[in-house]
Structures are given as C-alpha cells and as structure tokens.
Amino acid sequence: MNETKILLVEDDRLIVENLTEYLKSEGFRVVSADGQRKAMEILEGQEFDLILLDVTLAQGNGYSVCTEVKAKYQIPIIFLTALDDEFSVVTGLDMGADDYISKPFRPRELVSRMRTVLRRSGKSQNVFSAGDIRIDTEKGSVMRNGKEIFLSALEYRLLLVFFSHRGMVLTRTMLLEEIWDVAGEYVNDNTLTVYIKRLREKIEDCPQDPKIIKTVRGLGYKLEG
C-alpha cells in the first residue's frame, strides 16, 4: 500500500514533532522543512501529494513558497497559520492555496480537511489491502481472495475505519464515535460487538482466532496485516 506523502513546511520544532507523529498514526508519510529554501530543495528531488505550509517562516515566507510551488508543480497546499484575519485568509486562497486552517487547530479536523483536499485534487488513495482483503473505495467494493464480499453500510464503514488507522489501537469509544452516524440510529456498545463479530466472520479465515482485526486486551482493537 502506498502511503500519502506530505511535505510539512513549519519552523516550530514542537509543532513539527507532534504533528508528524500524529499524521504517521493516521497513515501519512511526512517529510519536514523549516524554511522556504529547504522546502524547494526537497521538492526538486521528491514527489508529494500535499503540502502543509506555515505562512510565517523564519526563512522566507509561506506566500512565496505557495507562489513558487504553484508555478512549478501540481501539488495541493493547505496553509497552517496563527494569522486568522480575513486579509490573510483571502490572500492565501487568492494565491492558489486549497485550504486554510488557523492555529491552534484540532488534529482530527486538520486530517479531515487534508483528506477532502486530496479527494478534490484526485490524489487520495482509493485502494487499500491487508492480508487477502482489498478495498476499492472508488467502486465501494471489498474483495477477499479475489472474490467480492458484501458488507452492510455500517460493516463497510467499520472496516474503512480500521484500514484508515492501520497499526493503531482503536478503543471501543473511538470506534463508536466513527460509526454512530452512519447507521442512522444510535449504535451502542453491544451493537458494536455484534458488528465486529459479523465483520470478522466475513473477512477472517478463522473468526475465533482473527489475524486481521485483532483484539488488544483491555484496550480495544487493531488492524494487522
């Protein structure tokens, strides 16, 4: 599975460290640059799916980076900045930025916006696989050993949540927050247990000894593979 590659242009080391760690847990590959010159050097040698760009940099500035990137590459840009006044927002968007989020921001909101921009730009990943399971989100299909299997809407959403957080332990509370609105009704803890059981019956060789969606005792579940 190819990871979505992100260039983070930010000179605050603490933000770089924390955001890089969070984005990695969400399945992104992150390369960072602390200024305009370093960012452009990196772009000359590597390809990226999205740029997260701070407006105020110790070396250069985000607006200049945006102008140079848009002139040379077809890469979507999201501005990260503490400048939340209307002029800054309009300036960033007029220069070609695809979105704009003000600090401090919630990491989950940022990831949601990133995925929206990636979808709009045609750079979002639409095929996922683990073991003998393959998901094509563009077609809305799930294959097992080359044969399509049929999931309910909630089972499909639940599976996507696991694939989107590969290797990360998901608590039952986190899973409930992700799927409750898809069912069109309240999903309680017992219902979640039932759906995980049904999902395992469809994707696991041995549901009683799962190899893909594993139980992490006392914590939750984790997608392996």
UniProtKB/TrEMBL annotation:
Residues 5-118 form the Response regulatory domain. Residues 125-225 form the OmpR/PhoB-type domain. It comes from the Bacteria. Keywords: DNA-binding, Phosphoprotein, Transcription, Transcription regulation. SMART domains: REC, Trans_reg_C. The modification 4-aspartylphosphate is found at D54. The keyword Ion transport does not apply. CDD domains: REC_OmpR (cd17574), trans_reg_C (cd00383). PROSITE patterns: OMPR_PHOB (PS51755), RESPONSE_REGULATORY (PS50110). Residues 125-225 bind DNA. May play the central regulatory role in sporulation. It may be an element of the effector pathway responsible for the activation of sporulation genes in response to nutritional stress. Spo0A may act in concert with spo0H (a sigma factor) to control the expression of some genes that are critical to the sporulation process. This is Stage 0 sporulation protein A homolog.
